[in-house]
Amino acid sequence: MSKTDLVLLKKIRTGEEKNAFSLLYNRYYEGLYKMVFVRTKNKYSTEELLQNLWLKVFENPEFVQVDDEGCARKYLFRYMHFRVIDSFKAESGNPENSDISEDLKDDISASEYFEIIEENDIQELFSMIKEVLYDVTDTEQKVYDLRIRQNKTVKETAQILGITDKTVHNKLSSVLIKIRGQVEPKYKSSKNLLYILIYIEAVTAMNNF
């Protein structure tokens, strides 16, 4: 019977089992790599972010949180999602200028992320979003898909669709306003809608690894 993540983390801390770290590393490395690479599209950045994670796990395994079943999967994927956003902001030198935040001025904290994912039914939220997307124009649907689901940059989206950067901004803004109007009566945190969408897309992708 395989050891739970909680057991492995405790053994990493005490050093009583030399292969505990390797077992945990091999259990999650591939899935985490795929999730991070999908968002960064950069092999070096992905490897650097994951190296920092595993070094932290090795030196301070107590920071990793587990669920009631002793599983660290959700926490590790959430943690790396935040680190990817941090890296985008660091590269831009200004959170307001990062590609992820360019369509949204508000920021969102880690605690807000946890609140969103724990309190809101993701499937219901997706259903509400799909209702809105069904009624928007074909171009708006494509912009949403490229920018949110595929994490393309504004320039990449504009190139693929043969439109201007400004049109990409305007179309995505229009879709987000419509989605916000649909979800706000129930989801009060939807002022941070772009971040919520990116996060739930990442969580959905995570479950497919």
Beta-strand share of residues: under 5%
What overall form do the CA principal axes indicate? elongated
Number of helices: 10
In terms of per-residue confidence, which ranges show pLDDT below 50 for 5 or more consecutive residues? Answer: 94-120
Instruction: Give me the CATH fold name of the largest domain.
Output: Arc Repressor Mutant, subunit A
Structural class: mainly alpha
CATH homologous superfamily of the largest domain - what is it?
Winged helix-like DNA-binding domain superfamily/Winged helix DNA-binding domain
CATH 2nd-level architecture of the largest domain: Orthogonal Bundle
Write down the domain tally: 2
The CATH class of the largest domain: Mainly Alpha
Major β-sheet profile: none
Q: What's the gyration radius in Å?
A: 19 Å
Helix content percent band: 55-70%
Question: Can you describe what's shown?
Answer:
The chain has about 210 residues and is an all-alpha fold. The protein has 2 domains: about 5-95, Rna Polymerase Sigma Factor, Chain: A; about 110-205, Orthogonal Bundle (Arc Repressor Mutant, subunit A), CATH 1.10.10. It is about 70% helix and about 0% strand. Helix 1 (about 5-15) packs across helix 2. It is elongated. Residues about 95-120 have low confidence and may be disordered.
